[in-house]
Every structure is written in C-alpha cells, then in structure tokens.
Amino acid sequence: MRIWLYSHLVNSPGNQLISDEAASRGHELRLVRPHSLNIVPGQIIEDLPDVVYARVGGAAPDSAIDELQILEGQGAFCLNSAVPIRRARHKGITYSVLAGAGVAIPKTVLLSHRQELSSALSALSGPPWILKLPLSTKGQGVCLVESLRSLRSVLDVVGEREGPVVLQEFVAHSKGADVRVLVLGGKAVLAARRQAQSGDEFRSNVYLGGKAHQVELTEAIKDISEQATRALGLEIAGVDLLESENGYLVVEVNSSPGLTASPLLPGLVVDFLEMRAG
Question: Which pLDDT value is given to residue 113?
Fold first, then answer.
C-alpha cells in the first residue's frame, strides 16, 4: 500500500511511529508537507497514493486544509477529509456542532472582548472558568481564569485576533484527569486515562507532561465518543472526555490525535488505513 502522510508537523513522534509501523508491514510511506506539491487546476495529479493520512491539527495554517481539499478534488482519498477537519480544529464550531447533535459538553459560551460579560456569563457557574483560544492544541492556548478581572484582562490581550474565544465551566470533579478515546471508522477502539503531572496543573495532555495508561472501554465511554465523531464527520479522531458528577462530557475532538498514549495506537491506525484503502 502507498501512503502519503500529509502533515505540517516537524520532528513529530506520532509521524515517526506511523512511519515505522507502515515500514514494518512493507508499505511505502511518503511524508508530504503542505505546499510542497505542484498542483495545476484542471490537471490530474498523477501517481496518487492509495490513501492520504492527514495529520493537520489546530497549529496548521488554514492554507494546509485548503490544499487538502484541493487534493480531494483531484481524486485523492483522504482520511480525514478537509471539511470534518475544519469542524474539529475550530473550538467554537466544534462545540456548536456537538451541542446541536445532543452530545454532552461542559457549559460553554463564546466571548469577544466587546461583549457585555455579565449577560454572557449568566449561563456559567464560576469562577473559575476554562478559557480556550479557537485553534488551541496540545493544551496550549488553554488557561484557567480565576476571576472576572482576570477574564477581562485576557480578553483585552486576545482582542479579535483569534476570533471569539471559548469559555467553559471548570469541571472540578475530574481532578486534573481526562479520558482520551481513539475512534476509527465510527467505532471506539481504545481508551487511555491521562492525569496532569501536578496538583497545580489542570491540563492532562501528555505533551505537557501528563501520564497515560490504558483503561476499560465502557459502554458510556464508547457511546459518547462515537456520537461525537459522527456529529463532526471524522473517521479518525481522538475524543477527550471529562468525568463530571452527571457523567462524561466531551471537551475536545482531535482530528489528528497523538499516538504516544499507548503502544497499540500506531498499529490500530495503520490497520484502519489498510482496511479503508483496501
């Protein structure tokens, strides 16, 4: 099988794991950087691969997603495709789609610095709150806001450069832990519990030093994770869940999930690429 690994990521452990797994099975894998292809409108790209595995998350430029969509128009089979990636990478769009589909999420509002905060915040308890920039990724662009004064200061700094920011209730019940679920083709296949590295850190991302271990895929975890990926139209996704007093809540759906939380992840992804491209 011929695979293009379409990714803006440099020195990515996940990319290396996929490359190693594909090579161990005799597949031909080519790393393709955004904007490295010569695309002529109306002219078919010759020698397309069997599958383009797109690993472009929130840190990728919009133009990388545009190019992926052009590749699809040229006949490339892409996992994930461009439109679902757009839905998943912009937090405001993600939460709006999930809420519209009836997926449980933390109480959420979208804020700009010009809004009257008192009316916007009436939908949330707190402080504290969790603030997320629209294209935050790997825990970066996410912060704990502990007062209204701090919130005003953050909004003044952010301004309108990033678009409306996401403000959510702080789910204290989760105690700095979440569950990352890998969903492939609409089916949850593996879950790992991630724990923040210290009592002062609420973000459990492995990228920020969080620790992960595999946990049981319960029916509750399966149901909400699969529901979230169906709503967004993703075939490959990492769904992050917080456990609240009333059950699991979806806090993020990543179209380019990290692959270091379990040694099983690279093999599961390549299994799926083989199945879908076969």
Answer: 62
